[in-house]
Amino acid sequence: MNKKEVAEIRRQYTPERCTISRICGCYIDAEKNIKTEMKEAFLSLPEDDGFKYLSIFKKTLSGTLGRNLLNLDFPLEAEKEGGAQEFLLRLRDSQLKDDDLIQEFYNKIIETFDYGENYYIILIHVTYDVPGKAADNLEMYDASDNVYSYILCSICPVHLSKPGLGYNAEKNCIENRTQDWIVDQPVKGFLFPSFNDRYTDIHSMLYYTKNPAELQEDFIQQMFGCSRIPLAADSQKETFNTLISDTLGEDCDYDVIRNIHENLNARLEEYKDEPEPLELGRQEVRRLLEDSGVPDEKLEEFEQHYDECAGEQTSFLASNIASTRKFHIETPDVTIQVRPESAGLVETRFIDGRQCLVIAVSDHVEVNGVPVRKLSQEMEKAGLTDRKEEP
Q1: Mean pLDDT across the chain
Q2: Through-space distance between the first and last CA atoms of the chain, rounded to whole angstroms
């Protein structure tokens, strides 16, 4: 699914557009015991409860593709009888009216989801009558010939509210507040089947994780049977950095690294309006290095380094490996952060036989929030006006 398709489904979670037919819930304690369950038509919920549930469903389809939202494909084994995809398909087709299937679904999550605290499983079935689109891309609700039937699951932590004082309106006094168990925003979730090209794709699903660094690969493999899992966002950046370091070796200098990140950010900017995230495979990464000034002799061993660091089939999402908010330079004693577009203000020079970082500054300089005089005036007093290269 791309970001437009995710956004289209997410827009349905409003009272006006809601087509959720049924909702099921299961509250699990920290010892993995089922404490309570619920099953009912979604529209029969109290209005305030419905609003809160819709907020949770929106959150389950939020975040960045490739970081919080991962497209997963089912292997062939998962689609055979008894496989994970085949089970989810039966669950979807039951419209959550088969109590035995729902109970089996809860048990599968309890067995495979690694979470040491209380949590609440929410499962809904939705039937979305997909509107057609005119040539100008406007939706035509009276021209639909496509029905998208799916299930969405949200796994939400349940925390005890903080102790404290509160106002009791009935008694008109301040007193000790009663602690309640609060259902928090989801930490994991999934949508099945996928909504690819605005049609049902039973061969894939969309997985949500609140923390991109905690995918819970074992949960994905055991619950969904998906063995080919994309690298987590942090792992992609770490792997990419290792690949660059191994490829450049002793010739890994500041200017080349700056060029790589400037070119990467430029490509992201060009691609920002596209529905699909910018993905870099082996050849795209090689071209990025070539355009950034990596010597040909270093690129001769690039293929080998790519296989060793990333793996033959691995690709990187540009948004996961780029530094779009800050350009970070670190030494054992000094850390420098500049906006990526201002990275050219920092240069490397050899001064008095020492390798130095030289930063071009404007007329305005502050130290701990206090404006200081121009550096040129300080240098003039010290008799250094003819030595502009001094750091």
Answers
A1: 86
A2: 51
